[in-house]
Amino acid sequence: MNSQTQQFIKILKHPVKFRMFLFMKLPAAFFSGIRIKQVTENECHVTVPFKWLTQNPFKSTYFASLSMAAELSTGALALACIYKSKPGISMLVVQVNSSYFKKATGITTFICQDGPAFKAAVEKAINTKEGQTVIAHSAGYNKAGEKVAAFEITWSFKAKAA
Questions:
Q1: In which residue ranges of the chain is pLDDT below 50?
Q2: Per-domain residue ranges of the chain
Q3: Sheet with 44-48, side-by-side order of all strands
Q4: Alpha-carbon torsion 47, 136, 68, 64, what sign?
């Protein structure tokens, strides 16, 4: 793991710095109570609670709140790979696919284990000067360990001109 990745993961693990990051960059996630519970260079666990701000009319977590948590579980790993990179890397979500299996009625934990794929795509984008994509997978589980939802989020990476 390079020092920039370590620095970014340290920010994500710091409770105050992470909340400030959410407040400034992802205010909807800040107010809905989304939290990173575990993060390494390889995987990220993000929770979203069922509460008034995340509910739908069917007494479960709104799909957009689930999507936000799934995206953060993948995006945190992607951001860790591009943090302070030289040259700079632009990243963008270009597609989202989702499937839902159970009502999310409590805390849902999304897990993404695609850190190595992000690292490889960023390195290839820098070396080839061509855009690269990664289809990241994030699955959400309830407290009982049952799969609630699964997401495929396609990220695009491109090295910026010097």
A1: none
A2: 3-159
A3: 35-39, 44-48, 108-112, 132-141, 147-159, 89-100
A4: negative
Domain 3-159: assigned CATH number: 3.10.129.10
Six-digit token string for 86: 């030289």
Q: What single-letter amino acid sits at 149?
A: A
Residues in the chain: 162
Exposed, middle or buried: residue 70 (CB in 10 Å: 0-12, 13-18, 19+)?
A: buried
Is pTM, for the whole model, over 0.85?
yes
Tell me: the pLDDT tens digits for 30-60? 999 999 999 999 999 999 999 999 999 999 9
Phi, psi for 70 (deg, rounded to 5): -65, -45
